Amino acid sequence: MKTPKLHWSLRESTSRVIQSVPPILQIVLGATAAFSIAHFLLGHTNPIFAVTVTIASLGFSRDARPKRVLQTAFGMILGIALSEVLLWVIGSGVWQMALVLLICLTAARFINGSAAFALTVGIQAMLVYIMPAPEGGAFIRSLDGLLGGATALLFTALIPRDPRGLAKHDGEALFFVFLDSLKALEIAVRRVDNRVADAALAQMRKSQPLVDNWRLSLDSAIAVSRISPFLRKYRDELSGQVRLMRGMDLATRNLRVVVRRVDFLVDDGKARPYLADLFDQIGSATTMLQRGLEDEQARGDAQEMFVEIIHQLDPKRFGIANEIREASVLLLLRPLLVDLLCASGMTEDAARTELPTI
User: Fold this and answer.
1) Mean pLDDT of all residues in 239-268
2) Domain coordinates of the chain in residue numbers?
3) Single pTM value for the model
């Protein structure tokens, strides 16, 4: 049996650390603030739950929505509070510990369908039950947990981890794959290269996680902008990016279909310069659309370019109306261009009216 090789890349590791700087700073500052308030202001000797609840609630998750932060904090506080109440009622011991865990897990599953939520409740309950009781009397740990949850929410609003930057980065990642695939299609039909088409197909099949990441980071950015005084002014910009993301999501799905059809088409060994030119034009317009991640005017410029392209999508224009193999590719480009026009800000009905009659 072969031992699997471990893959490590200095570049990937460095990039991961750089991208993690905002959440690292947020967590460090939040945990320090929670400890300082509990220890120096409230006089708690070892406020471990104030720190752990803050750290876990903020976390490194791409999902930085206040709802997710609150859910994590609530799960931890619920486990702490339930365990403290049951410890006070039934005392300590092995069977008591088992009963506490049973009650906490059952209550967690009743409250929330997330398995992670139930495990969070159970782990916190066991930490409370097993660790020595702190000085200061009953429910000190619950108070620390509440303090940690409040601190996490406060730092989510006042020291956000650049959700706009993360959303832009995720959008750029999707555009990179999209544009790379368009370039591959241009080469494939111009040079009749099956290998290039196959590579593009393999790449496009892995593109859905990029769309999902962009959607999640945008949702987080919008949610944080509702409570953060520093991000509120960007809400319109983020809403425009949501339209861009939705259009690119549909366009990516359609491009996968186009890539599969081209992969089949080039098997006949015939070069098709007109298709290569179309893919080149779509790539140029999409590059302009990519600039729309930051510049709304660029979306308008891209829209004009897409309109010029969509007017060409008539098989009769290229004399292939009776050639099903070729015409099918051209026909598949029509919904792709409609989606790209929608991504640029045009309504679907308006985009469809731009389609030439066939």
Assistant:
1) 92
2) 10-158, 163-353
3) 0.80
